[in-house]
Design goal:
Blueprint (H helix, E strand, L loop, with lengths): L18 H10 L3 E4 L2 H8 L13 H19 L2 E4 L5 H12 L6
Parallel strand pairs: 1-2
Helix pairs in contact: 1-3, 2-3
Length: 106
Amino acid sequence: HPDDVARGVADGGGVVLRPENRELLRTRTRCIYLRASSDLLCRRLRNDRRRPLLQVADPAERLRQMHAERGPLYEEASAAVVDTDGVPFAQILDRVVRCLAPEPAQ
């Protein structure tokens, strides 16, 4: 049945700001938080001009503030957290797949 197919969604960073969204993530999905440090995010996004919230005098400080605010909310909404700093992509993918594996029957 087509509705039985697993799907992945990369949501926008601000989705967790609304409590009702966190509730939906927690109860209707297997949300996996791919956690990156604010330093890593700063390096990745330093030249990105498509993110309006980072078009400020000190984008690194703004990103640190957003990370501090949103990180705990993602942890609250997530079934699992996968740290990504310094981890090769294949290893991150393996960890995500293991997080999504069905629980063994008891």
